[in-house]
Amino acid sequence: MQEPAFRRRDEIAVIVIDHAPVNALAQPVRAALLAAIESAESDPVVRAIVIHGAGRHFVAGADIREFDHDPRAPLLNDVLLRLEAATKPVIAALHGSVLGGGFELALACHFGRMSRSACRKYVSASCRARAARSACRGSLAPRRRSSAC
After folding, report:
1. pTM for the complete prediction?
2. Helices (H), strands (E): how many in the chain?
3. How far apart are CA 8 and CA 65, in angstroms?
């Protein structure tokens, strides 16, 4: 596991979450992510922060190896509250799977940007879910195909 790295590209702080295979939010990852956010916030040159996951996924949830243990600080909620309170804009660069705690992390960021593959994946899932809900309600109304589907 590599802890989230903070590096600066001109006026943009880039934080990379690299915890193979799915970038799970284990305690060391949460701690390093919190430290990276605070470093970026305190850097006077940085004007915006981008968070993205290394490899095939943004963040695919919690680390299941921690489920049998007591929670250790920082909790995910601590990280999310710090992100929401950031004075600089925070952008989630979404790709691959964005599940559970990863989805919460994306929602805590001020902005999100999806890759084309992630957009197709989630828009398609959203359309299937909407069609399934409609079918479950017994709706006979014609379904409109939105531009997102």
Report:
1. 0.76
2. 4, 7
3. 32
Confidence check: pLDDT of 12 > 50: yes
Do residues 42 and 83 make contact, with C-beta atoms less than 8 angstroms apart?
A: no
The CA distance from 4 to 34, in Å, is 9
CB of 110 within 8 A of CB of 90? yes
Instruction: Name the β-bridge partners of 60.
Output: 99
Nearest to 51 by CA among 41, 62, 42: 41
Helices (H), 1-149: 27-42, 76-84, 101-108, 116-136
Token duo for residue 29: 């990852």
Contact indicator for 108, 76 with CB cutoff of 8 Å: no
Report the pLDDT value the prediction gives residue 125, as an integer from 0 to 100: 52
CA distance 96 to 134: 27
Task: Tell me how far apart the alpha carbons of residues 136 and 115 are, in angstroms, rounded to a whole number.
Answer: 31
For residue 148, report the phi and psi dihedrals to the nearest 5 degrees.
-75, -25
Domains and CATH numbers, the chain: 2-136 (3.90.226.10)
How confident is the model over 72-116, as pLDDT tens digits?
A: 889 999 999 999 999 999 999 988 888 888 889 999 999 888 877
